[in-house]
Amino acid sequence: MDIIYTIWLRSMKRYIRSKSRIIGSISMPMFFLLFLGFGLNSVVNIPGFGENYIQFLMPGMVAMSVLFTSVFSGIQIIWDKQFGFLKETLVAPVTRMEIMLGQTFGGATTAVIQGILIMVISLALGLKVQSMFGFLIALGFMVIIGISFTAFGIAIASRMEDMTGFQLIMNFVIFPIFGLSGALFPIRSLPDWLSPITRIDPLTYGVEGIRYGLTGASQINPVLCFLVIGGFACGMTVIGAFLFRKISI
Fold it and tell me: What percent of the chain has a predicted confidence (pLDDT) above 90?
């Protein structure tokens, strides 16, 4: 446990010291909230939300912040490879599973913090949280999303050596995952050929879980959301640990 905590603490210190990273991670969700949300608020009518498109959009922006922060935390693996820190860590008398879990929990924690920042800003913009219990539900889904996609980022980074290539691949993969998750639009209104695609997107269940916690409305049963995103988190952690163990020094 000590090595997991130590690596987690290192990730937290790097996060706190990088003010540009904090600001950059909330800039895109805020752009969507301010321009897309207020721009379409008067013309979009969503069942269960009426003409309050911003209320529908805000949980998706929280999920977006957690997603992007967690995935790109995997770049720390490549950074540590290039500067030799990872090699020194791998030759230490600790298991690679502990190292990987420390990296995963560190990335997930920073991602959840980013999500909470967006949530606080959303409250100032008019988000109405149903209850404290609902907030805890949303927070739980944020944690699961953070773990899932941090492990996903680590799995990809474990097989790469170039930070630029990692960013390009992540952008290619993550934007479709986010775009099809229902963060920006109701999945019930999609055409028949597109709806099944959103159902195989794991982030869809995370977004709907957060939306249920914050607003009390969800397009998918929240229990099913928990089971799917929870299973995805377990699967990605196992895959990430397996690929991390294959890193050669």
Answer: 25
Burial of 32 (0-12, 13-18, 19+ CB in 10 A): middle
Q: Residues 46, 25, 171, 244: what is their CA dihedral angle, to the nearest 10 degrees?
A: -120
3-state secondary structure at position 46: strand
Q: Tokens 């799995």, residue?
A: 155
Q: CA dist 101 to 26, 77, 154, Å?
A: 25, 12, 10
d(CA 156, CA 121): 32
The predicted model gives 110-132 an average pLDDT of 83
Residue 22 neighbours by CB under 8 Å, 6+ apart: 15, 114, 117
DSSP structural state of residue 189: G
Q: Give the phi and the psi of residue 223 in degrees, each rounded to 5.
A: -65, -45
Helix (H, G, I), strand (E, B) or coil at 50: strand
Q: Which residues pair with 181 in a beta bridge?
A: none
Output the average pLDDT for the chain. 84
Cβ proximity of 89 and 80 under 8 Å: yes
Q: Answer yes or no: is pLDDT of 197 > 60.
A: yes
Say whether pLDDT at 146 is over 90: yes
- When pLDDT is cut at 50, 70 and 90, the band that residue 225 belongs to is very high
